[in-house]
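Notebook entry, structure prediction.
Reason for the run: the old model in the group folder had no record of what sequence produced it. Starting over properly, with the input documented here first.
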Amino acid sequence: MESNVQTDTSAVAQSQKDEGVRGSAPAYYVPETLRGSDTRYVLISAAHNEEATIERTIESVLSQTKPPERWAIVSDSSDDRTDQIIQAYETDYPCIKYGRVTRAPGRSFASKIIALRIACRLLENMSFDLIGNIDADVTLQNTYFATLVERFDSDPTLGIAGGWIYEQYKGRYISRRFNSTESVPHAAQLVRRTCYEAIGGYALLRYGGEDWHALVSAQMNGWRAEAFQELIIYHHRPNRTLFRSGFQAGRMDYSFGSYPAFEIVKCLRRSSGPLLAEGLIRMCGFLLGYLVGEERQVTGEFIEFLRRDQKQRLMASLKGLIY
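New structure, fully documented this time:
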């Protein structure tokens, strides 16, 4: 490996020793037999200026008890040392394949998906059963993917699966407030190949939400999706500003055709305590779509399916409050 790339082979272990990480998440044991599963998986990643975190992510994946058959990492027009780091690992680890896309400066949801599609081209002629995304700013338990593979092996209806995101707060890692078994984060997920092909892969969307779109599309095709609480995804890069992330999330909700009553309740839930402004800003983004008459990015069938599910969940919540 090139001398200018500092590789810490104990990155994952060290991240668990950092203040507040040890003991902050549920422990989970995976039997040795899981290493022997014949199910093969591949990974894709898009990385934009991730020199501060990508080495930890790479070491985390290389430390998995069941590593990927191939991992295609595409630099999304990075102008820091991201490319050099990926290339150095590619030299030492045959499973890693490097790619690059060049575009105008700045972060973009669309450019991320374009980079992931280029990553998929690096998987051509590969034989695999599961395909997954991992963001370049996370680390995982070393049994993370072995456990996910086991879940797919034991449930043929499972189409998309992942874990729960933990983020640093006051010196320790805690579960993200709105983690849910029903919402599989894109940060580190696996998708059954037949499901992935049925939904057409990750969609190119103006406001992001490719994980949500994939989940709903999978359910429309009869697949089940689940995020497992005992599988921890440590997220290391701070989020964007509250206004930008909240407002854009509202625009995304509108573009997906989210049921208005469900959106109101969701935003109210996010408008309590320290997150008071988040729900209000998200609702502003949602309402703007109606004010400007913005065209939605999904089909009528998608909106109908989503709203039916949201109405059922809303009614179940209201019944729970009454009874």
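Summary: The chain has eleven helices and nine strands.
The old model has been moved to the deprecated folder.
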